[in-house]
Design a protein that fits this description.
Elements: E1 2-7, H1 13-25, E2 30-33, H2 48-58, E3 63-70, H3 76-89, E4 94-99, H4 117-136, E5 139-142, E6 147-150, E7 163-169, H5 173-180, E8 184-188, H6 196-203, E9 216-220, H7 227-233, E10 237-240, H8 249-259
Parallel strand pairs: 1-2, 1-10, 2-3, 3-4, 4-7, 7-8, 8-9, 9-10
Antiparallel strand pairs: 5-6
Helix pairs in contact: 1-2, 2-3, 3-4, 6-7
Length: 262
């Protein structure tokens, strides 16, 4: 089992960096940031990729990435460059978490971006194929949503590319099928963090012939549940985070960073 912190960058930017630095010092294996443009009216929202670049200079060991990036809000060519640059700054510690994203209004429709989840699902699948090709070598792609002719240099430090984790709301099968084509799944509960039993039930939807040992299962850690129960259910990563509309969420997350691994 490995352990990560997922930080909403919805506070002072230096506070986010301090939390990330404290997480590595406390022994956490991964530091991830939420990726939004708007999330709640009046709430400050910082760009995760700028912050991750700074964290790459402040840390030495922890994996760095997003949980999760809604790829349809970003051109795959731009995202490919951002992840590659983070991979170089961090000496090969970049991970890309992806998903459809929420909220549909503030983070998509209100910005003139595609809001229909079915269309965004198709765009996500095509984007992931484009990203994979851009990281591996010369790319000549013409699809329903993107046209790309490029040979991006440098390649990522990690070869053939950084790992891709796909988020999906339980019990939806489609994101689970999408995640099977990549390197891991991030199951999301509809009402709070998933418990081990619900996680095991969701993973049981994967056919036996499609199961792989090198596939990550990134579960949010419900408070008070022993890590071993998640490991028995199939989790390979446990993640703590915070709900940023709750009063005192920054200090609550800081205390979790300091003491959850005790």
């Amino acid at each position: 089992m490995r352990y990560a912190v997922s930080i909403p960058p919805f506070t002072d930017a230096r506070t986010v960096l301090d939390l990330g630095r404290e997480a590595e010092q406390a022994g956490w294996d991964g530091i991830f940031l939420w990726d939004h443009v708007q999330w709640s009216p009046g709430m400050p929202v910082h760009d995760p990729w700028v912050l991750l670049g700074a964290l790459a200079q402040l840390t030495e060991r922890a994996l760095l990435g997003t949980l999760v990036t809604p790829v349809t809000r970003r051109r795959p060519t731009t995202l490919a460059k951002q992840v590659t640059t983070l991979d170089h700054l961090s000496d090969g510690r970049a991970v890309l978490g992806v998903g459809l994203g929420e909220p549909r209004d503030l983070d998509f429709a209100d910005l003139g971006d595609e809001a229909d989840p079915r269309v965004r699902g198709a765009m996500l699948d095509e984007s992931l194929d484009v990203l994979d090709r851009l990281w591996r070598g010369p790319t000549d792609h013409t699809g329903d949503h993107y046209t790309v002719r490029a040979d991006f240099r440098p390649r990522p430090v990690q070869q053939p590319r950084p790992r891709i984790w796909v988020a999906g709301v339980v019990p939806n099968r489609k994101p689970l099928g999408r995640a099977r084509r990549w390197d891991g799944v991030v199951p999301i509960g509809t009402h709070g963090d998933l418990g081990p039993d619900a996680l095991a039930d969701y993973l049981a939807l994967v056919p036996a012939e499609e199961q792989r040992e090198d596939w990550d299962v990134v579960a949010h850690w419900a408070k008070g549940v022993p890590a071993q129960e998640y490991a028995d259910a199939g989790a390979t990563w446990l993640v703590i985070s915070a709900w940023p509309t709750e009063q005192g969420w920054v200090e609550g997350l800081r205390q979790g960073i300091r003491h959850a691994l005790d």
